[in-house]
Amino acid sequence: MGVKSIIIIGAGLAGLSTGVYAQLNGYESRIFEHHSKAGGLAAAWKRGEYLIDGGIHFLIAHKPGTPICDVYQEIGTNDPESVVDMTTYLRFVNETGDKIVNFTKNLDKLERDLIDISPDDAEEIQKFIKEVRWMKDSPLLTDLGMSVKPPELRGRFDSLSEMWQMRGFMKYFMGKYSRSAQHFAQSFKSRFMKTMFENLFSPDGPIWFVIMILATVAAGQLGLLKDGCPGFIQPIVKKYESLGGEIQYDSTVIKIIVENNKAKGVILEDGSEHRADVIVSTADGRNTIFRLLEGKYLDDRTMKIYDTWKKFDPTVMVSLGVSRSFEDDAPLNMFLLQEPFRLGSRTFFCLPLRVFNYGRNFAPAGKTVIQAMFETDWNYWYELRKNREAYEAEKRQIAEMLIRQLEILYPGITSEIEMVDVATPYTTWRYTLNDMGSPMGWLMTKDTLMTQLPRTLPNLNNFYMAGQWVLPGGGVPGCIYSGRNVIQIICREDRKQFQTGVKS
Ligand SMILES: Cc1cc2nc3c(=O)[nH]c(=O)nc-3n(C[C@H](O)[C@H](O)[C@H](O)COP(=O)(O)OP(=O)(O)OC[C@H]3O[C@@H](n4cnc5c(N)ncnc54)[C@H](O)[C@@H]3O)c2cc1C
Fold first, then answer.
1. Which atom in ligand 1 lies closest to the alpha carbon of residue 32?
2. How far apart are the CA of 288 and the centre of ligand 1, in A?
């Protein structure tokens, strides 16, 4: 028998990871990618002399010696020179600029600063910081339970041992800290504390996720990509190609060929047909299941998930190239606004601002890219896009609104702006085909986090899924692991020892 061939749909993190492990394990793989470059949601694009980083905000577990970092290294990325430690997760500033909280790695200081701001909330603050300290010291922080076997390879003993390993984390899936940030924030008495805690990440996301981020900062395990997404993605592409893998860009898969309940190949938009022994889709889950496979391989459980689970809301992202250095700003800032503003059907009380002042390639010396991102509604942008003029006008209006707000925070900035770029949910969809422009797939909730999504579909052989649609919350480590998991499963089926390095 010849070498088993694998077709992978999508060259995002999951597709690239699947490809690297496929090659390392002696399979012959090819990736078909819709866009003209690799990375998927981990995207960056040039605007004149500026580089806009439109993806990965921070990298979890970037320091060697942790299971996640080992996996980054297996797929050829995470050069220590290209990542800088994030010592402050977020700088939160009130409406008048006289209350500033730096969410730094120094938890004693953070606790003191929070209590100084709201002494009435001291007890709640201490409990919260206690959780961050606990998580900081947990070995699971740099593993996140990902190194356990995928569900398909687990026996009863593995599940028990996983539950034992994860026992400390269970409280985050059930109790008070499983609540959404929005809900948890109501535990505080002060309005400032409520608003701040609601906005430390996504208001809809669970508060334990914020605890985890603060713990990774405190543990020195949260990194910023000095060269943005390309600095993380390109080394993986290079490793994949050096192992003999092939990526075909501008190649959108429109159908997965199935014969006798076996996936046999794909048909591209240009009509060409490509065959392989195994097909792995890392493309959007809904598109894969309901369009590429015509909804023929479904059970009630999968149907229910796609009918009821919530996704991360899409975002509108405004990036500005500014002739100013922003040396003293944190990479991530949140400003409470004097006047809230409206965007579509939503009202915003805070302005989140990323400042790319830590990198090498974002802007020429003395200049900086800054970026604001707002959660928004897919339907609003989808409808608007039908009228190109109205769509472009709305983009301009959002940029103008942002610049007006920034002028209050950074007087004189208007005249220093040299580049404006607005990316909408429609943009995200156009380049990645993710359902409703969702940036991270399924929202993390109590229900979604307790559910294991299989990487296979009922009654369909030789077919697997990887990426953010098979693991709630998506994210860099999870998506990379999901590709690795698929090749682990295939190796087991082929009775082969799973390899993580090149055999010498
Ligand atoms: C702004 C932003 C910030 C983020 N920040 C972080 C962060 O700080 N930390 C973190 O861990 N995660 C972060 N994430 C999430 C993380 O980037 C994603 O969860 C992850 O990159 C998803 O990878 P994926 O391979 O599963 O999917 P994708 O990146 O969506 O890749 C799928 C690929 O498949 C291609 N494709 C789709 N359909 C087809 C088709 N029919 N034919 C051919 N190709 C197809 C797409 O073009 C795409 O390249 C962020 C995401 C965004 C958008």
1. 43
2. 15
